[in-house]
Amino acid sequence: MNENLEPMRHTLSHILAAAVKELYKDAKFGIGPAIDNGFYYDIDFGQTKISDTDLLKIEKKMHSLIDRKLPMTKRKVTKTEALGWARDHNQDYKIELIEELPESDPITFYDLGEVFTDLCKGPHVKNTKEVGPFKLIRVAGAYWRGDEHRPMLTRIYGVAFSTDDELNAFLKQQEEAKKRDHRKLGKELDLFCFSDLVGAGLPMFTPRGTELRELMANYSLSLRGKEGFKKVWTPHITKTDLYKTSGHYAKFGDELFMVHSQVSGEDFAMKPMNCPHHTQIFASRPRTYKEMPVRYMEATTDYRDEKTGELGGLSRVRSLTQDDSHVFCRRDQIKEEVKRLVSIVKELYETVGMQKLRARLSYRSDEDKYLGDKKLWAMAQEQIKQAAIDNNLDYFEQEGEAAFYGPKIDFMAEDALGREHQLATIQLDFVMPERFGLEFTNQKGEKECPVMIHHATLGSIERFLSVFIEHTGGWFPFWCAPEQVRVLTVNNQINDYVSQITEILDQIILDQPLKYNELRYTVDDSADSLGKKIRRATEMKIPAVLIVGPKDAEEGIVSIRLRDREEKVKLTKLTEFLKGLK
């Protein structure tokens, strides 16, 4: 978040709450922080239902408060005074927050003139006239404190910037984002669907969507295959002992889907990640320094019991497919292995048109949630920083974002709208190999524990697709479009000529970026008008549409409509032309 804008955005959340309080006297308030690009406030409106149509009225009231140049005044009170205030004003959520605060520490309040008082640490601007341009953008539901067993509050989101130009540019971007929403395009392009009978957060992919996800997964695997990674396969359930040993059970036990065997009485878990399984393949036989590094890869579905309120399209699901890989190597091989993985990431994201990458070096914080010796962590963090320097990455460092077993390089890819998404990752792990007692025989004939490097190029394939669909707006590059070509016939008098065209299409093999990638096409020879056929093909965002009529057949040409142009190509040149589109 921009630290210079935080006081302004935080103040706007208070002004929002003050406006709501004047319009809805019985409202009870949760929390209202500043966030990236703006602010929000969680509010309990009781029996009153609030929707996006109410935002204009609330926004108008906010402007009237801002025009009064109300001061933001900070004051400190005791816990007893704070609780007295919250009870007097019937603010149940504030009572809960205050009761959790230490008895000895002073509690800070901010007064918005004489209009509104709130429990808050700040920061804020001096008075309401110092806030910049803003707009309330949407209403959403949010469980109190993120707990689905607690009350559902109404969250009102707003955006705020220093200038009108910045605000208008952001709102324009948001409008474009709505058009590109992967949930909307997923339905329109017939890519994936959900069913209440199957369950929330469990997407199903149609033939078109399956084609797209498998093309992406296979491309990712092919890049690693060229670098010496070997495919492995692991089962979808495991004894809980595996995750107790790895440390995942203690950290994420509440996210596990549990399975009870009616035969043996044993408890199993549906796997939420693959790394513990891969350690067991490594441990299945003796290893020596000569065969290191050992590289495994697997594109497999994992399962996590995510909270219902946090699910959203493909962005957050309960069944996620990871293009996962793990390297077991000697310490003197870390540098070369990380370099190898960085080159894979760069190549993939350049191919999909998201080559603007930043690397976040995610380190541990001082919290107790991390496993392993701090000295090992310090060494691992220095290793990934040096790797970022050696590979000329545009990087920044951030504490508290590491995995619980090791630091990582998280790659932030920028999409067509300038939004950053964390997708690929490289994680250095000295902890898990020790917990599982992994070893190899080194050059001295002694047993040594390997280093483990976790890597996903796409990350979760579902989440990657949510980003990729929005990045392309559904106009996928020719090589990975589920349907690359559609042939449209003007009438049924040219069937012989259409057969000549489809024979050519059947023989075309596009060898990049996937070898032996046969051309994917359909023929629309329905009785509908040509205009209707063209509209259908455009709505489905087909990269190349071949229009064939009697005149085309007579002249031995094909009329081709691309997204940005139209061309007439001789039948003898059709193969060369289509191969050029890849």
Features:
single chain; 582 residues; alpha+beta; 8-stranded mixed beta sheet; 5-stranded antiparallel beta sheet; 18 helices; globular
Topology:
Elements: H1 6-23, E1 28-29, E2 34-35, E3 38-44, H2 55-66, E4 72-77, H3 79-88, H4 92-99, E5 107-112, E6 116-119, E7 134-143, E8 152-160, H5 164-180, H6 182-188, E9 192-193, E10 204-205, H7 207-225, E11 230-231, E12 237-239, H8 240-246, H9 248-252, E13 258-260, E14 267-270, H10 275-282, E15 294-303, E16 319-329, H11 334-351, E17 357-363, H12 374-390, E18 395-399, E19 408-414, E20 420-429, H13 431-435, E21 440-441, E22 447-448, E23 451-460, H14 461-472, E24 485-489, H15 495-507, E25 509-510, E26 517-518, E27 521-524, H16 530-539, E28 544-548, H17 550-555, E29 557-561, E30 566-570, H18 574-581
Parallel strand pairs: 11-15, 17-18, 24-27, 24-28
Antiparallel strand pairs: 1-3, 2-3, 3-8, 4-5, 5-6, 7-8, 9-10, 12-14, 13-14, 15-16, 16-23, 17-19, 19-20, 20-23, 21-22, 25-26, 28-29, 29-30
Spatial separation of the terminal alpha carbons: 39 Å
Poorly predicted ranges (pLDDT <50, ≥5 residues)? none
Q: Total strand count, please?
A: 30
Structural class: alpha+beta
Q: What is the helical fraction, as a range of percent?
A: 25-40%
- Shape assignment: globular
**Mean pLDDT, rounded to whole units?**
92
Strand content: 25-35%
